[in-house]
């Protein structure tokens, strides 16, 4: 390897050829603008596009909202079901009964017509005797209300003028007849089942003053009941408290001579009522009487038993025979 210095590299020593080239180029000038060096060739640019996010990332963001919405729906559904169940539990066992209500607003002093009333079912435990029921609607029609009533309100007996105070028993007594009252109890009035307009027989029990024995006779037959206590056949019982419907006396429609007999028989002993079918108006002659002797001998009992079998329909199961 030569150890001679390199002129171009070390700028030491001399090199005639290089020097001659430098001299020949020394007088030349470049009279144009310096050229620009080319930059790195640019790639064709396209509009920037966002990289699509993976579907999993979108789900990750939306998942809490979806879960919250589902929980809200489930919660509201459970709450609604609980309310409905509570409502069903409350309603279970309620017996719904119809009552009369106002079909429209009824001003004070208005005479009620059928067009102004309707009916609606309400729980039985909220219905008292003061509420008008459908079977008593005829008692409030053509009556004047004492207070204004709004549409849908139940009608109460206290809202109406009543003719109860003006009711008179004398208007029920026919000419030439008389009304008389006798004391009764449940045991002497068929358990309290006797009602106004029923037909009854009157059985009297007393001591025979001649024989000094107790006797029972049918004193009167087919007697009409005018009233039980203060109730007549035209009294609106629905407007009365339950306690006032009970009675311990009945008023009978008789002729004056029968009234005398009843007064005397009631003074001598006790009177008992027997109830008739409303269509049975026959009077049986020669009824006889019951005494201790007839009870003990049994002769009259056997005769009457056969008569009863021939008269009363004996019911066996769902069929009956005479």
Count helical runs. Answer: 7
Secondary structure tally: strands: 11
Shape: rod-shaped
Q: Unreliable runs, pLDDT <50, ≥5 residues? A: none
Helix percent reads 25-40%
Structural class: alpha+beta
The string of secondary-structure elements, in order, is HHHEEHEEEEEHEEHHEE
Which percent range describes the beta-strand content?
15-25%
Radius of gyration, in Å, reads 57 Å
Main sheet?
Answer: 7 strands, antiparallel
Distance linking N and C termini: 162 Å
What's the pLDDT, averaged over the residues?
78
List the helices and strands and how they pair.
Layout: H1 7-10, H2 16-25, H3 55-91, E1 96-102, E2 117-123, H4 137-140, E3 178-183, E4 199-207, E5 214-228, E6 231-232, E7 249-254, H5 256-268, E8 270-275, E9 289-291, H6 292-297, H7 299-311, E10 314-316, E11 319-321
Antiparallel strand pairs: 1-2, 3-7, 4-5, 4-8, 5-6, 5-7, 5-9, 10-11
Key descriptive features of the protein:
322 residues; alpha+beta; Type Iii Antifreeze Protein Isoform Hplc 12; seven-stranded antiparallel β-sheet
Structure, explained:
The protein is α+β, with helices and mostly antiparallel strands and 322 residues long. Among the domains are: 64 residues, Antifreeze-like/N-acetylneuraminic acid synthase C-terminal domain (Type Iii Antifreeze Protein Isoform Hplc 12), CATH 3.90.1210.10; 119 residues, no CATH class; 31 residues, no CATH class. Helices cover 27% and strands 21% of the residues. Strands 3, 4, 5, 6, 7, 8 and 9 form a seven-stranded antiparallel β-sheet that branches. Strand 5 and strand 6 form a beta hairpin. The mean pLDDT is 78.
């Amino acid at each position: 390897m030569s150890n001679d210095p390199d002129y171009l590299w070390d700028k030491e020593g001399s090199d005639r050829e290089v020097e001659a080239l430098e001299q020949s180029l020394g007088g030349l000038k470049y009279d144009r603008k310096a050229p620009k060096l080319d930059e790195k060739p640019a790639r064709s640019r396209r509009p920037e596009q966002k990289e699509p996010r993976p579907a999993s990332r979108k789900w990750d963001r939306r998942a809490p909202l979806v879960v919250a919405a589902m929980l809200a729906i489930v919660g509201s559904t459970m709450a609604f079901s609980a309310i409905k169940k509570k409502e069903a539990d409350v309603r279970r066992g309620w017996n719904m009964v119809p009552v009369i209500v106002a079909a429209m607003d009824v001003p004070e002093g208005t005479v009620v017509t059928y067009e102004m009333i309707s009916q609606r079912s309400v729980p039985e435990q909220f219905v008292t005797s003061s509420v008008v029921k459908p079977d008593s609607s005829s008692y409030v029609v053509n009556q004047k209300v004492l207070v204004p009533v709004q549409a849908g309100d139940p009608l109460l007996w206290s809202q109406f003028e009543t003719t109860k105070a003006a009711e008179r028993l004398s208007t029920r007594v026919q000419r030439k007849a008389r009304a008389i009252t006798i004391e009764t109890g449940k045991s002497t009035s068929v358990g309290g089942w006797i009602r106004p307009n029923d037909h009854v027989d009157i059985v009297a029990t007393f001591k025979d003053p001649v024989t000094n024995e107790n006797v029972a006779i049918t004193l009167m037959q087919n007697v009409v009941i005018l009233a039980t206590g203060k109730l007549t056949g035209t009294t609106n019982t629905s407007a009365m408290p339950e306690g006032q419907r009970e009675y311990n006396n009945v008023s009978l429609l008789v002729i004056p001579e029968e009234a005398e007999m009843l007064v005397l028989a009631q003074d001598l002993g006790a009177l008992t009522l027997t109830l008739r079918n409303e269509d049975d108006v026959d009077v049986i002659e020669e009824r006889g009487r019951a005494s201790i002797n007839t009870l003990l001998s049994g002769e009259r009992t056997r005769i009457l038993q056969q008569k009863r079998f021939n008269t009363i329909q004996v019911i066996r199961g769902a069929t009956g025979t005479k």
